[in-house]
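Example record for the data management plan.
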Amino acid sequence: MDFLHSEERDLRGVIKRFRNRDFKGTGGQVIKNSTYQLATNLSAKVGSVLFTIVIARMLLPELFGLYSLSLSTIVLFSTFSDLGIGSAMVTFISKALSNKDNKKAKSYYFYLSKYKIVLIIFSSILLILCSYFIANFYYEKPIFIALLFGGVYLLVNGMISLISSPFTAINNFKIPFVKELIFQILRISVVPLGIYLIFRGNISQEFSIAIVIFLLTLCYFFSLIYLYFSRKKIYFLKANKKSLNVSEKKSLKKFVLPLSLTVLSGLFFGYIDTLMLGHYVESTYIGYYGAAFGLIGAASTLIGFVSGSVLPVFSRLKNKSLESLFKKILIFTISVSLFAAVFTFFLAKYILYIYGAEYLPAVGLLKLFSILLIIIPLSATFDTYLISRRKTSKMAWFIIISTIVNIVLNYSFITYGLRFGMMQAVTGACIATIISKVLYFSLVGIYRRKISKKYKAPN
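Corresponding structural encoding:
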């Protein structure tokens, strides 16, 4: 009961601060930062859903499949432009600033920036060099020019990440929020307008997808310009720089290397299905798969939004208070997830009309994927709990194991399904994805249950 009363007092305190616009002190700063972060995440998720619906309707399944394949490939290469450096930047700069050491913060930024820039250029050149082979020999689809534009896409996105990290480190979440807002508004307006105007002419599929990727890159570029002119607010860059010693450099490497493996595994976990389908099936079927999985991904992210937003709260709680709040979040997530899954399963046909009647062949895929509306949000809730307990190394191993299983199952089920037809191969990829995500959910669930026993003692 004391815990409930404290929650009510905290909630009233937050509302009072908002009403009086009182963001003084540490508590006020936390509330302000959390609000901007919440707004940024919400803008990104809602903008992504709206954008996907609009271009899916405009491109139709075949071109939408080529677009999904192009973007998935570009995003895969973008992983090599970071490898955990962004997280290291935020972590070590924040630590230096908490010790009032602006010089050390600047040293960390410039030291990591050198590696970050090298990786950005490397990933961009690697994609450009591999684009012809990937498009014409692996996929055998007309996305060569789109992947070439992807090299520029990687450069722009890499620079956005490089400039954004210090703002997070100095607790300035307003700038990233405005940046995200600029990008979402631009891509929801500029890209569809460009498609409408340019596609009126008789242009090939290859140039059509290339134009979409180019327009998307252009939207990112304008948000990069905003960040560039806002960088003067990164106050620690005005300090003199001092060299990092051997021990400090070693600490950075120990932090980044395991994180790199986690990032790579996590990305393959999320995109291997699309990348493998790109080799085996026609782009129209990739469009069906992308439409069904896109809806599930968007819905599950919104359902799991609550669990993600309570990470700072989880991190401050201990023992029974932690377990009490976790159970409440879990019950809420299960309730909403079950309703969403049942709703999606029985109304899949009508839901797909959001994309247009052309996507109705994906009804069966959407029904299968409806189970993920339970699995993904619950996994996110367990992830939040484990992160708050600093059990990220275990999570990394769970992701790696699930990724390996995902790759094996995708290959097995897709190739077996091709014996009966392309839609059966896509269904195989769908089942492989579900099994691998259920495996990850089981692993994090079992481990959370194991460590939760340590927190059942009184506070």
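Summary line stored alongside the record: Residues 1-11 have pLDDT under 50 and may be disordered.
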